[in-house]
Amino acid sequence: TVNHRRVRSETMSQPRPDEFKPPRECPVFEPSWEEFGDPFAFINKILRPPPGWQPPFACDVDKLHFVPRIQRLNELESSSTLGPDCQILGFAGCSLKIPHVERKILDLYKLNKLVADEGGFDIVCQDRRWTKIALQMGFAPGKAVGSHLRAHYEKILYPYNLFQSGANLLVSWMHASI
Fold it and tell me: What parts of the sequence cross the membrane (predicted)?
């Protein structure tokens, strides 16, 4: 006959393979005040590798592969605090939310440069070149991206450019609305 109590107590006293086994206590080092003055020298005194030991290289270079990500400067933050130039325009204390067009963050620098290269906001509007600018920025043709770019330019970059040029904003806006 099998004594079930004895079998049960023997199996319960043996550790299971998945059971946590606490590690043994590590030694505690208590340096003197003199040794504590240079902690690295103290650590070097108690921890020494065998002579000639070279640590293995941590990465297997044959298996290490990664795809580098190109991150444009205007993608580093989704919003940025306006500088002192924009504070003068009446936006003090506000945050500028960088707009998205076609699910991409709008490159305001590139938009500003392309509009300037085409002759400025007024000429681009007069000659209806917003679609051309949208194509130059890499947007697909046939969508109304040009009107979105114009709206974002007019709201964000146009007041800034007027300020940079020294124009009177009130007179410029009144002139634009006439």
Answer: none
How many helices and strands (H and E) does the chain possess? Answer: 10, 4
Tokens coding 59: 């990465």
CATH code assigned at 121: 1.10.150.60
Would you give the distance in Å from CA 76 to the centre of its chain? Answer: 4
Is 115 within the bounds of a domain? yes
**Looking at residues 117-133, what average pLDDT do you find?**
93
Q: What is the pLDDT of residues 41-98, one digit of tens each?
A: 888 888 788 888 888 888 888 888 888 777 666 555 544 444 554 544 445 455 667 8
Distances from the Cα of 115 to the Cαs of 40, 104, 158, in angstroms? 59, 19, 10
Instruction: Flag whether 105 is in a domain.
Output: yes
Range of the domain at 115: 74-177
In a domain, 98, yes or no: yes
Whole-angstrom distance, CA of residue 78 vs CA of residue 69: 17
Q: What are phi and psi for residue 99, nearest 5 degrees? A: -75, 160
Residue 101 lies in a domain: yes
